[in-house]
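Notes from the 1:1 (GR / supervisor)

We went over the backlog. Supervisor wanted to see one worked example end to end before approving the batch request, so GR pasted a single chain during the call. The sequence is below; no edits were made to it. Supervisor asked that the structure be written out right there so they could see what the output format looks like.
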Amino acid sequence: MSDSSTDLREYDAIARAVHYYIDGAISGKGDDMKPAFHAAATIFGYAGDEFAFPGPIQGLFDWNDNNGAATHLQARIASIDLIETVATVRLELDNWNGARYTDLFTLLKVDGEWKIMNKVFHLHS
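Structure output shown during the call:
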């Protein structure tokens, strides 16, 4: 098997990890997102001028539980950059209950699985 087919499988595995996050946003359940993230993952970003969610990813799960289902969410993976066991993903999200976000994820392949280690986001005005 060629290296390119291996890379394609890795890109697909990375996209599957990100889709757990998207599915959790749509369902409004933090538990649906959890498989995407490493237990030690972090989140940082701005909501307007406010530095939001600085710290453990559990803050995102709690917010998602309280925010409710985003049934009209449109999500698009804009880019995936892969370097062996490290990847970055840019995700564009529109209509997360009326809001638009850009998420940047760093992922690490841990025990054979891609896990989001960090989420940095921007809430568009």
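Supervisor's comment: The longest helix spans residues 3-27.
Batch request approved.
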